[in-house]
Amino acid sequence: MDVVQFDDALISGKPKQLVFLTGLDAVNNPGHNFVHQLFSNFVDDRFPVQFRTLNGEADLSPSKKDSFAIKGPRGILKSTWVRKYTERKPAVVVVFTDLDWDHPSWIEKKTECESKISSLRQSFGEQSATRFALVLLQSRPSEDLSASEKISEICTQCRITQKQLFTLSLANPEVTKTAVVRNVQAFHEMCQQFYQTTIRSVRARAIPNNYPNLLIRQQFKLAFLSELRMDTHTALRHYRQAYNQITTYEIVDCDAYEIRSIAGLLNYKICQLSFAHSTALEALSQYRKFITTFYAETICQYPSPQLASIELSLWRAKQSVWFAELFENAIGRGLVGISTQHPGLHYHAAANFYIEANKKISNLRLNSDPSLTYPQPDPFVIIDDPLKKTMLYYGQRPWRVPFENGNLADPVTERNGRVALELKSMPNYPRVMNLLNLSLSNYRTYRCERFQRQVLFQMADEYLLIREPGTALNLLTRVMWELRRSNLRNLLHPVLLGVLSASYCIGSLKDYMTALVQLMNPKLYENVAMLPDSTLPEAYASFFAQNFLEICDGRSIPQPIQSLSEMLTADEIANYEAEWNRLLAEPNTFHVNMNGLDSFVSISASFLVSQGFVPAGKAVVMQAALHNKTGSPIPINQLGLKIGKLTHVKDNNPDSTEADFALEFAGEQFLLEPKKVTTKVFTFVPKTEHVGVELIIKTISLEIARSATTGNLDWEAPFPRISSESSHPLGQDVVAIIPTEANVVVKTDNENPKSLLGEISGLTFEVINEEETLISNIRVECTEEVPEGREVRNGVPSIRFLTSDNKLGADFVHELQLLESGESAQLPVHYSCSATGNLKIKLKVKYDLQGAERTKNAVFEVASEQPFLLRPSILTINCEPVSWLINGQESILRAEVEAAAPLTIRSIKWTLNKELWPLSEIEEPFEEGCGNMETGEVLSPCVIVKTRTSITSPVCELGQLVITWNRPSTGSTIEASVRSVLDLGTSAVENVPIVVTSFVAESPCVVRSPIPIVFTLKNTSTDVLDLRLTLDLSDVFMFAGHKEISVRLLPGDSYDSKFTLLALSAGRLPFPRLVIECPQAPIDKKSFASVPASLYVLLRASCNPRSPAPTIIISQMTSPDWTLRHLD
């Protein structure tokens, strides 16, 4: 049984215009065959024309009324009308004839053409709108001057226009091909005229408004003819009008099949043209409206309620397939699909409808009368139909065709038709599989994982129906693990039932028991909606638990679940039971990997130790806890536990495997009480050869063996740890076997040792023997304990030890011969730190005790810090702090050195960069007692430097400050000099075009006395500078001389400008400011870095001419603590 089959021209895509070719002898004439092939193989989307050869067998007479034409207005679309314009009634008939312009029998040939066309006109009817075209096949190019006259003659005689006459030269194949393209274009234009005339004729017919079927028919004809005319927008409008008419059509029970069929066709055409017009949203909207209107389940009784329901499901499936194909073609043309709108959704919907129809068909055949036979004569064969088994209208019942007015047939005929439909109805499982595969492909393309799982589950059901349980089991296993991976365990119930059914059919004991141990878990049925009516989860799980125990005890064989029993026949069930009896009669062993399964029992295990290591010789306790979630007691034959090696501490061999070490334990029979936790304890004592091995519980196995069938439920590491009453896990997952602990104590008297970077500090360790007997061959090794993840820089350890030959090394070794029980030994250790921070010293004590070697490790932490905190700075020659150096000028480097501990400085040395030229001493030794510093005291050494003019880099390394120091000798410290190198950092180097210096020519400076001041200007650039000098005075000075001077300085030249001032008051006065303007280069404050900030003027009474000249003090008021004194 299937839905109505429409003509290919309606659903195959764009319909093509029909053109008949006649007069070509393709068999005997090569030229004619060449022309025939050109037209037959012509493909161009611009001209959708199909060419057919008109032979003598074709019936060209106008169609007559059908013998069974319905007189009343009952049918909607005639099944023959579409074929009329796509197969029988051409738009253009093309007549070919061999005729050159200079043919000797021109008149006879002309008469022959007129005869052929006249005969064709009579065959089609004089009133037919079919156009005729005449093509003259010419063997050679001709330039006959009378060609135009002959064209007029033949057109007049054949009653055609000159646009309907064509010539085709066969002399040059390339020219022939070009001419064929032009001819096809002309034929296409003639077809357009034919369909336009036909449309006018159809539109001119009067249709009564009270006959909706005739209105639908007329709109459909106009739409299809417009589509042939390539006017798709007009066609879409008429299709919509026809669809709107049918939505208001009164559906009669006996005509519902026909109405739905026509509605589906109209919806298909509307969606097809909407996609073609790139209006996908309109197509989707139309399809939704169509579903809302026609997909609703209606109570139909014709031919029978069961058949009507099956036909509705099949019709829905067909509509979904049609729309999915349209959607897929649109995506192929560039439409973009998304995860919520793509063809896979509609393929999936079609598959669901086919599945629904298959179920209904199966129920129909199951409940049908087995004595029914196929009726004779066949109701689907129309005996007296001249159209040969062709129904008059789409959707019409075949047995109702001979009856007038579309009424029902007699009861016997109707019954025979119903019986024939029932017997012809067969489930179509391959069609379902094909649609599910199409939907799965789309779901993968658009990454719809949940729908993929649903489709795979449905495919497994279909494979069960077609008796391929092996393939079904593979798909269900995949779905099951996908659900676990996505943490959707509440959806496992139906999948496990499918696994149970598939494994039952193939006789797989392992898969069957694997499904049972999961179905026994009541937690699987938290969603009560998945359970049968009025069934509690506990009772449902107990049913599977009872089945599991009966199989293990040998009291029963696996039984099919209810859904599988309904699917299988009695013979199939009997065959499966026989196969299971044969299988279970022999000894069987099955292993179920329980990792990741939601089974009826959960297990946890751990080593019951407080720390992650156990000494060799000490007992290790392992505990396994088993929680039975079912309401039934489960007898266990044996609990097996296996521990193995995780890693080997000393062995980095990658070939080392678990087989190097393994221990197995087995327990006795016991019973898993329902809803309780059962614990089992195992103990073993590691031996000396196990030292260095990290142990882990590898596997736990439950053996259920009560008959010939033996089952093993296996778990592999990792296991969850056992929970205590406080909900905290107990024990450890991994236990390392360590050597037996040595009974030796190592301690030091200094709990918080501190040292300075580079100095040699000391610690005294005490080794106490607490063994019961003496120990011998004692060896103490001191090394640095390097934290994990930290690397040793440049191969130099952070702590070096002073050896017996007074050299620093990476370790220190001290040996003792004997140490009595309770006796102790003092061990002084001297070390030097080359890094700051909290460092660790590791002491490893090895000794012999009664022939066995014992080891004791102890770690002590020491703190190391820098001896000095350095704060370097740069000052101008006037002691003004700056952050740069002037290229070629003097500056002062100052270093503030703060002591971090009491110490004595022996000397300080400046190790300057080669680009800096020192102008003062760079090394200063300290006499005994002069360099003592306490914690927090600051020493500020200074040096005057001048940058070399060769510096080209904008940044200059200043160099280093080397301080030689020592700390007084104590009990733990050796008095030795330490040389600390402190980095001074970097400074920016500035280049200025001009440098200004200034000094007072005469001293002392006395109030109201002339004060000569000289400003020296030096051009440090490579350009000639034009300068304008202006002296800017404050109100405390009077000025004598030129206040503004213009100067030109060549590169490297200097100029002295002298000004005479008179101070009006005494004290510290601001130094006169010289303003320099230069058009060649900007002058900023950096050029005046060497100019004093202030001038100290004395009172007249304080000046005694007999005494030496007083000191002129030039200082910076902002930094009174630092002065630079110039003495005469």
TrEMBL record:
Q: Which organism is it from?
A: Steinernema carpocapsae
The Gryzun putative trafficking through Golgi domain extends over 960-1076
Organism lineage string:
Eukaryota, Metazoa, Ecdysozoa, Nematoda, Chromadorea
Question: What protein am I looking at?
Answer: Trafficking protein particle complex subunit 11 domain-containing protein
Q: Name one GO cellular component term.
A: cytoplasm
* Entry superkingdom: Eukaryota
Trafficking protein particle complex subunit domain location is 258-521
